[in-house]
Amino acid sequence: MPEQSQDFQAGFSYPKAWGEKPSKETPTVVSPGDMTTTLHLEGKSRLGFLKKLLPILLILIVVLAAGYAIYKFGLPRLRGVKEVTLNYWGLWEPDEVMKEVLAEWEKEHPKIKINYTRQSHREYRERLQSALARNEGPDLFRFHIAWLPMFKNELEPVPASVMSASQFESLYYPVMTTNLRSGGDYLGIPLEVDSLTLFYNQEIFQAAGKLPPASWDELRKLAIELTTRDETGKIQTAGVALGTTGNVEHWPDILGLMMIQNGANLANPTGNLARDALVFYTIFNKTDRVWDETLPNSTLAFATGKVAMYFGFSWDVFEIKAINPNLDFRVVSAPQLPGTDTAWASFWVEGVAKKSGLKEEAWEFLKFLSSPEITEKLYQAESKVRLFGEPYARVDMASRLKSDPMVAPFINQAPKAETWYLCSRTWDNGLNDRMIKYFEDAVNAVNADTDPDEALQTAASGVSQLLSQYGVATAVTR
Q1: What is the pTM of this model?
Q2: Per residue in 239-273, pLDDT tens?
Q3: SS3 239
Q4: Which contiguous run of DSSP H or E holds residue 82?
Q5: 244: burial class by Cβ within 10 Å (0-12, 13-18, 19+)?
Q6: In this structure, are 365 and 384 located in the same domain?
Q7: Span 330-342, pLDDT tens digits
Q8: Exposure string for 359-372, b = 16+ CB within 10 A, e = fewer
Q9: Percent of the chain with pLDDT over 90
Q10: What is the CATH number of the domain that holds 142?
Q11: How far is residue 375's CA from residue 101's CA, in Å, rounded to a whole number?
Q12: How many independent structural domains does the chain possess?
């Protein structure tokens, strides 16, 4: 700004041309009223200017705050993102099945690798728990639903950000929500469901002009009619594989189903309801003689056409077809007692280790793995190496398998299924297998002419001690 002239006097104003000295005219006298008006106008002008400036200042403050937040919180995270590896222990799926799904995950999450290891089922439960105790276990792993009491302190609850409790309850079957709940939390996400069904030899049934049974009474009559013997009385074709323990695959599941349908309390298997179910199971060997302990394992017997009816799960289809690809058989729902509509489930669940340092990433992966799109891709990948994949655990995906006559029965029973610590072939060497042993002793005792009530009283004592040891309530929720 130019310097003021030495001739500057109060009341004078600069001429329009800079450098031109002001003329010495009579000073203009400003009245107090004029001064007030001038100040008022200047105040209004300043206020208007501030009003225009205020939005700009607010925007500037917001921009600066956002910039600071990004600098403070965002940039360190972006700079600090490192490649991590999740260790995932599976059981049944080979690498070739998981490969496609894992590749898609890593395409979307290049910084989170998945190290999938298929474990041997032998001593898996002990190996897994030991590794978790040493803090050397996997970040996520597969476990059986009957193992939950043994793992509940090592499993991280499903976070609400992955799936709320209400979402879980709407997406999965009651047998899952009932048995995976601990307090108000759920301790895993199932990818599959399976249920005990009745397999029957189509050729034998067609030759006899019979239809598969819907009730236990029908099954018993059919078993007697379809059993054939040689001249010495030795069974040539068994009507059904029931009644013993040593050579009947899934006998604990079958007995458990019978007891639940009859209203018995498996946690305290005494009284008439439990006794009647136990006696009915043994009647096929002890009274009707449609099956006995001299026969081969029931899976082999059915696969070779030596038994008309057999109880199994979805994976038994693969074993039977591997033994005899040409066997013509069908799968239907398990028989019922009058007035009942109850099935038996046995399935595996994916969980996240409480001690994992990558829990957030592990849950994000399980959220991805359990989504409808990826679940279906996994099923298709499984179907490339066997007849079909694991039946969907999600209720909203059941309709996708309804048209497959070999898979549909396993899914159809899921809404009405229950389960307990009597699931065969989990190889846990813990709560489940020890529980099975008490019921095995009871079946064998009755087959050896021990009084059923006495056999069950002995079993009930062991069951009570076992449940107490594992901190399980002594009542079965129905």
Answers
A1: 0.83
A2: 999 999 999 999 999 999 999 999 999 999 999 99
A3: strand
A4: none
A5: buried
A6: yes
A7: 999 999 999 999 9
A8: bebbbbbbbebbee
A9: 81
A10: 3.40.190.10
A11: 9
A12: 2
